[in-house]
Specification:
The protein is an alpha+beta fold and 302 residues long. It has three domains: 2-88; 111-136 and 207-287, no CATH class; 148-198, no CATH class. The protein has eight helices and five strands. The strands form two sheets. Strands 3-4-5 form a three-stranded antiparallel β-sheet, covered by helices on one side. Strands 1-2 form a two-stranded antiparallel ribbon. β3 and β4 form a beta hairpin. It is rod-shaped and about 120 Å long. It starts with a helix and ends in a 15-residue tail after the last strand.
Length: 302
Amino acid sequence: MLNIALLIKKYSVPFIFGLIGFVLLLSGLMNNQSIEFLFASIVILGSAVVSALNVSGKISAKATKIIGFVSLGMAIVVLGFTFTSVQNTVDHNNDYKACKGLSIRNLRDVQTAQKAYLAKNKVYAADWKTLEQFIQADSIAILDAEGSVPSRKITEKERDYLIQFNLYKKGQAIDNKMTELEAYYLSMSPECPVELIGFRRDTINVSFIETTFSKNRSYMKERMDNGYGDFVATDLKYIPFTDKKITWKIDTAHVVVGSDTLPTVRVAGDLPLTEIKGASKKENMYFGKLENSDLSGSWEIQ
């Protein structure tokens, strides 16, 4: 009984460390852990074996100390590798988040530019050169409005004035409140109603890039707050974190819907960084579809 108790006392520490090392090694092999993790498990298991040999008298205390110091050195090296690996993982995760965030921002900007190009040209830009020229040099029409439409019906006298614009016929009933178009014509009449003095509805052309991007304060603030830097139209085509070597791919087509032919567009590409470090499958990001006019982005429908 005393011999059993003595054996347990002598071999309990080597046994516990050996069990820990074995479990860690088995877990590492089953879960595809890093080489550093496996090496650390082997060091623990080896230290347990050396400790068992020492307490059993198989090796001397001097040899045990030498092996212990060697194991300690290897453990320190492994710890260094582990720290580097962890730091690399943190850096990768930060880069992935920055890459995906900037990709979404840029694809949204391309989305906006394609919508504006469609509104002006009735088709989508089929290549980056065309789209960049539009962004940098073209203008868009916006409404320059001042004043509001009075919340009342027009008078019979006002109705008679509007007949010349084919809005009414003589003696026609006045059933609804004044419309935007009626207010516009009445504001230019010789007897302009007092509520419409200064009323204006004009269409003016403005720089697309300045209005939408480079001089849009809220947009530029968002870019700066997220660390995206200044807006550069010629950078939109590049997938972030590819050193400006890989571009998003633009595809355009047309689909027939009833009696109408509608233009379609899809802009897509693969992110250079994966969400999980070491994963082989790259993440595809895109907006638009070629088979219909849906311009939704992949980040919106996940």
